[in-house]
Specification:
- By secondary structure, the chain is an alpha+beta fold.
- It is built from eight helices and six strands.
- A two-stranded antiparallel ribbon has the order 1-2. Strands 3-4 form a two-stranded antiparallel ribbon.
């Protein structure tokens, strides 16, 4: 959102599978704000890029989530959720969703919920916000509830294969001598805009 509370990006005419209007363009709108506010001087003074436009790019969280390697926690519960979805179908619950639930007493568990429970009285499905109980905005950190929720993920989520991937990427010795390499920056440097 911008400083006036308006959502960044324009409304497109497309809808998601639930029939909700899809907002698009927020990443590009944020990029334009950063280009305008930071300007070219900083980037040209560092001799890394010829302009703010060439240096600034955005990542959509969803792309990173879909492109990142799933950790042990993701793989375990992904398999559990898939198995439970099949069980729901075998029970004849064809409009049900397999979900991952959490509460302080029982921790994480797989459950099923009727798909229509996600809809409001007009039949629309709205995006869910993080519950305020998970975050303490005054301290700018997770609340006690948020910590209790994240603790099993942090404690048991990483397997040996996850650590091997981290060793080969994050702790690659070439990272000490090579600057951060971005394919997007390389492409932006080669784009010529015709007037």
């Amino acid at each position: 959102m911008d400083e006036n509370g308006r959502e960044l990006g324009a409304e497109s005419t497309s809808t998601d599978p639930a029939g909700n209007v899809v907002l698009s363009g927020a990443a590009e709108a944020l990029r334009q704000i950063l280009i305008q506010r930071l300007g070219d001087t900083y980037f040209t003074s560092k001799r890394r890029n010829e302009s703010a436009k060439a240096a600034i790019f955005t990542r959509k969280v969803g792309h990173t989530q879909r492109g990142g390697s799933p950790i042990l926690f993701d793989r375990f519960y992904g398999a559990q959720l898939g198995g439970h979805a099949v069980d729901l179908l075998l029970e004849g619950r064809v409009n049900a969703v397999s979900i991952l639930q959490w509460d302080r007493e029982r921790g994480f568990r797989v459950d099923g919920i009727d798909g229509n429970d996600f809809r409001d009285r007009w039949g629309l499905i709205h995006s869910r916000q993080m519950h305020p109980a998970f975050y303490n905005p005054e301290d700018m950190r997770p609340s006690r509830t948020g910590i209790d929720y994240l603790l099993p993920i942090f404690t048991n989520a990483i397997g040996p294969d996850d650590m091997e991937a981290v060793r080969q990427t994050l702790f690659n010795s070439g990272n000490l001598t090579r600057p951060y390499h971005s394919v997007n920056t390389d492409i932006n440097k080669r784009i010529c805009y015709l007037e």
